Amino acid sequence: MGAQLRVYKRRIQAVTATKKITKAMEMIAASRIVKAQRKVTASMPYANELTRAVTAVATGSNTNHPLTTEAESPARAAVLLLTSDRGLAGGYSSNAIKAAERLRERLAAEGKEVDTYIVGRKGVAYYGFRERKVSESWTGFTDSPEYSDAKKIAEPLIASIQKDTAEGGVDELHIVFTEFVSMMTQNAVDGRMLPLSLDKVQEESTEKGEILPLFDFEPSAEDVLDALLPRYVESRIYNALLQAAASEHAARRRAMKSATDNAGDLIKSLSRLANAARQAEITQEISEIVGGAGALADASAGSDK
Predict the structure, then answer these.
(1) Which of 112-126, 143-157, 176-190, 193-207 comes out lowest in average pLDDT?
(2) Of 52, 89, 133, 241, which has the fewest Cβ atoms less than 10 A away?
(3) pTM
């Protein structure tokens, strides 16, 4: 076997092994998307009803609660960025990071300082490589988050918005995550979680034909808000984590399918080159045999004379 043919065969074996790995990862990601979608759907009713309850309490009372009241001159904001722990998911994490950078620039243009909180090793690595300050980070659960993870993330964020900015607190809380639209579409989006925009929630309820309920508050509306709003933040973060997980699996499935298809195309190309090299070797061997036979025939004819 010629040297060139051996090179092609080794490359075909390597690409074939890679194709098996990417195909397996594609199938695993596809199987996890369905489970992640179900979790997203299951989390929506609780989050929606909790938002309506918080809005009803806030609008049905004269309480100026710090978690629902706009600061007169907001000077500091916290941004929670959701990325992935693992790679091989195309532009999933980079798109979320870009969205966070755009939000950061927008907040800076409004004269606000930004505290960054990050979920996922990809985001942590991005900020670490650039030696940028991160207030707090969490890793190890992005592909399968639990409610306890959301609660753990929410605690320092709620504590920061309850503090005065002079003591290191923030006036606003924003979140950046990848919204799951469909198997083929996932969008990196940002949104403000706190202070809760009551007008926006009321407008959305009106568009849906919903009527916000009226409540009597005991012991007081402020105490009710103190109890409800942490749950509201946790539910919003949990829903975002679930959507991000579904988006990550979808992005990884798409990336691995593309890698598998490219590996198949490369194997076909290498196989054609290997066949061409083999045919060239066979042609050369035939030429050598024919040439050798002809030389022997000439030699035999000369000896007979």
Answers:
(1) 193-207
(2) 133
(3) 0.83
